Amino acid sequence: MPSVNEWLTFSEWGSKWGGLSSVTLLGQPIIIVNSAAAMEQLDSRGSVFSARPRLPMAGELVGYDQTLVLVPSGPRFRVFRKHFAKLIGTRGVVSQFIPLVEDEARRFLKRLLLKPGADRISAHVRKLTGAIILRITYGIEVEEEEDPFVTLIEKANDNFNAATVPGAFLVDVFPAMLYIPEFLAPFKRTARVWAQATKAMVEAPYLHVRSQMATGTAPVSFVSSLLESEKALSEEDVRDIKCTASSLYGGGADTTAASLYAFFLAMVLFPDVQRKAQAEIDAVVGGTRLPVHSDHEKLPYVAAVVTELLRWHAVLPLGVAHAATEDSLVDGYTIPKGATIVANLWNMLNDPETYPSPSTFDPTRHLTHPPQRDPRRTCFGFGRRVCPGQELAEVSLFTSVAMTLAAFDIARVAGPLPVHEYTQGTMSHPKPFHCLLKPREHAVALISAEV
């Protein structure tokens, strides 16, 4: 099994052996899905392929089996999904958060204006996405300097990325290793530290809301609204509210941040795309205001930039592994009960037969008639584990991209062009790169006035 850039090796396997490949890792069958057609067959049988494999490291030891991403299928999973559906499950319910997203995007522009250094862009992006999630979930407004709750997200997500890589920890293959004493099992010492970060991510912002509610100062949020009838809630209900909130908080911030950071890289590498998008924005707002989400229909090219962004940089190159709950036939092959399913989303989003010249950032591929395959059908997962926050993610990305293009030119620095490379882990950001941010005409006045 490859240990780095696994999606590239799996893609090579797909070229040799087709849409499905099978490997056995110390007795555990792992099915690699390289084609969108095969993934759609899995998607159509969500009840069979929507379980998660047992991952003792990330699950029992680190605690992510208490959050939506790894919680086993069953009653708790349905409770989590129900909470998500009511909060952000449709475009209609997400619309209530558009003013909040626009407000945080303006603050993001101000941070870029005041501290435009290339080494700051990633931090600004993370603060933006964390701020949106924190306000929706807990009513928390982030601090302008280092925010303790954003730091909690980043620590916990870094741990999740490392703990869920297939084959990274032998305990995931040999669960009996759970019973080895810690002094003989270094992975347990690592897990103990990571588990503390997971607990902090779940408890700290929840307790903050409880404290504000006790003093009557809690803003309306997902958590405060559900706790209003706390006397009628059981211990299990409160536990599920905490874990649903941390799932939104942990899962929504890092994925959107990775996409938005990739946007800056794409604009450096493909300046013609930037100029075309800015011309469309200027024709709509005329430099008199910043674009907002209600301009979406008038900005089809900018919307296509966001769609292409989701394709061009696969935030979850291999998704999160699924498991088969019964024997099933896919593409003429039997996938056995208990097999781990790894969907190579990177390969599907870079398939040259579906997306010609896939390494090129080309928004026009999503404006053709009929359009090429919508990458959102791939990048947001499949089955009953499809990302429940995709509507909020798209609103956040469109708003942030449109406002940034209206306010700044994103240019290359002297020297070689940066390279589009992925960080390692389940959730992948572009590797750090350098660029220049130059305020456009009227940008300073617009940002200052609107903030």
Fold and architecture overview:
- This protein is of the alpha+beta class.
- 52% of the residues lie in helices and 7% in strands.
- The chain has 18 helices and eight strands.
- A hairpin with a 2-residue loop joins strand 1 (20-25) and strand 2.
- The N and C termini lie far apart (50 Å).
- Keywords: Heme, Iron, Metal-binding, Monooxygenase, Oxidoreductase.
- It comes from Mycena pura.
Order of helices and strands: HEEHHHHHHHHHHHHHEEEEHHHEEH
Largest sheet: 4 strands, mixed
Which structural category do the helix and sheet elements fall into?
A: alpha+beta
> Into which percent range does the helicity of residues fall?
40-55%
For the structure shown, list the relevant keywords:
18 helices, monooxygenase, single chain, alpha+beta, globular, heme
Give the SSE layout.
Blueprint: H1 6-17, E1 20-25, E2 28-33, H2 36-44, H3 46-49, H4 57-61, H5 75-88, H6 91-94, H7 98-114, H8 118-138, H9 148-163, H10 186-215, H11 222-227, H12 235-269, H13 271-285, H14 300-312, E3 322-323, E4 328-330, E5 333-335, E6 340-343, H15 345-349, H16 376-379, H17 390-407, E7 408-411, E8 436-439, H18 443-450
Parallel strand pairs: 2-6
Antiparallel strand pairs: 1-2, 3-6, 4-5, 7-8
